[in-house]
């Protein structure tokens, strides 16, 4: 049977969510690193953007959040009740739209990095830390979901792109987020992914 294939640049950015998810569940997939979008791949990109996911059955589609949600649904990682599923969607939307896209804009010089400390950390990471302290899992319920994985990735990503922001985020300031990080990074598949992921000159 053909392996699923994920096509994206070597950078973390929007490709890291499906990468970490596939690694967490030890899914055997092909990592197709793209140097640039050219005629060899452009016809598969509906909106001219990566990442691109090709399932084992040949189904192809784009958009990072849609890819992660599709994979997580197949793996029963999106919550068990309608309420849990709604909270998963709420969380991954906040991570993707409000946090990660903002971090990328900071990297590109569109937003000031000071706003991470002033806006992003108190509005989002403080709230997620609070929720984890009250419920253990971000979507409630009795197990981890895609919501937890998304917040873990975002938590780790902020300090990678903007090290000065990490000074306000790490070091025990958010213990429940640290516990979440420890959970995912103790997973064999995720640990292997972290060990082998490409190091790029541009930290994005």
Overall morphology: globular
- How do the SSEs run, as a string of H and E? EHEEEHHHHHHH
- How far is it from the N-terminal to the C-terminal residue, by CA? 34 Å
- In helices, the fraction of residues equals 40-55%
**Low-pLDDT ranges:** none
Structural class: alpha+beta
Query: Whole-number average pLDDT?
Result: 95
- Report the sheet-strand fraction: 5-15%
Report the major sheet: 4 strands, mixed
Order the strands across the largest sheet as they lie in space.
Answer: 2-1-3-4
Radius of gyration: 17 Å
| Number of helical elements | 8
Assembly state here? single chain
Summarize the structure.
The protein has about 200 residues and is an alpha+beta fold. About 55% of the residues lie in helices and about 5% in strands. The model has no long low-confidence stretch (mean pLDDT about 95).
Please render the helix and strand layout as text.
Elements lengths: L4 E4 L7 H9 L5 E4 L18 E3 L5 E3 L1 H11 L7 H26 L6 H22 L10 H16 L1 H4 L8 H11 L2 H9 L8
Parallel strand pairs: 1-2
Antiparallel strand pairs: 1-3, 3-4
Helix pairs in contact: 1-2, 1-5, 1-8, 3-5, 5-7
Explain the overall architecture.
The chain is of the alpha+beta class and 204 residues long. 53% of the residues lie in helices and 7% in strands. The protein has 8 helices and 4 strands; from the N terminus they run E-H-E-E-E-H-H-H-H-H-H-H. It has helices spanning 16-24, 64-74, 82-107, 114-135, 146-161, 163-166, 175-185, 188-196, and strands at residues 5-8, 30-33, 52-54, 60-62. Strands 2-1-3-4 form a 4-stranded mixed beta sheet, with helices on one face. Helix 1 (16-24) crosses helix 8 (188-196) and helix 3 packs parallel to helix 5. The protein is globular and about 45 Å long. The model has no long low-confidence stretch (mean pLDDT 95).
